[in-house]
Task: structure prediction
Amino acid sequence: MSELQALLKYQDVDAKLKKIEQEISSSEEKKKYFQARKFLENAADKLDAIDARALELKRLAQILTKKFIEMNEILKDLSNVDELIAEGADVSFYVKNAQALNDGMKTLKQDLNGLIDKINAAAEEYKKLKAQTIKMQKQYNEYKEKYAAIKESKKEASNAIQKELSEIEKTISPDIMAKYKNKRRENTFPILCALKNDRCSLCGMELPLASRSKLSGGNVIECDNCHRFIFSE
Ligand SMILES: [Zn+2]
Result:
């Protein structure tokens, strides 16, 4: 068997391994396991964001409390206004104070309502996050096992193919094999493709004459465009 034939045989067997890998990676078990894992990885950040919001809302509440205390002070001043006016104090000063107090109360009420809405929204978000986290924690545990089981169920077939591959590998030069495996790791498949009409049959890139002349005697060259091995049939 020539090296080219060995490479093509290797790829044929490797295709079976690729199929198993695809079955695992496209499985519902993997999808749900990775979905839960990703959610849980990001949950801490989401919780931090809610914590930061809670601190900000607390700060706003403190500001409103301070405003309320200030208004209360003004109200105290106004409580004995009758006596003060009887003693000859300026009425217009107290009227102005009372008006300012009235306006301040209105604004405070609005601000307070706004704050309550924000607090409710944050509490709702927290509640949702908590429920989702519990759900995803359960999904993680369940599908971690299911994903492992699916991999385990394919292990025997996968090992048999690996064994077959390592036998064929013995007849292929190490540098070509190393390049093949690199391409395989980069998710290129198929890795070998025939020259058709002076072009790479997979990506259509035309090969210059100088490159094509290297193909004689069962040699392979790499396509400049898709980096697959090109061979001449
Ligand atoms: Zn190509």
About this structure: The longest strand covers residues 192-196.
